[in-house]
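Structure representation:
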Amino acid sequence: MLPILLIDTFGREDGLNSKKPMFMPFCDDGTMSDNDIMRKYYEECQRSMALFGYDIELGTRVGDFLERAGFDRVTSIKRKTPLGTWARDKTMRVIGLYTREAVLNSVDSVIGKPFAALGFSEVDREVWAAKVTASAKEDHVHQYYNFYFWYAQKPEC
């Protein structure tokens, strides 16, 4: 769950594109409760990463950095990325599978030192890891993350 900022030019000479997943889970159909473990996990991740100087919401503000760097026509597109394979669309199910794998692959590292810094014992961290892992594998809760795509154009020299 470390803040990830991927910057690719995709072979374009005139622009910059970056992708940043946001980790607060959302749900539009009421299948996720207000005290959902993934939501609590995100909140604890946000608190723990802040202790190390990381802002996991940075992706929502990439445009500010691009503008300050002198880029023109800064644009953001926000897309919903499912957590798991619950989506009807086949492509979105594959994307959801990859999203789930990303979450599952990051749990141990986030639960380790960052959660320890919040004062969670080793046993508490193991319980968190088990709950988050089980929740990420459940497809009856239709959770998604917002994924931000930022586009900008290099200024004329």
Residues 1-15 have pLDDT under 50 and may be disordered. The longest helix spans residues 90-111.
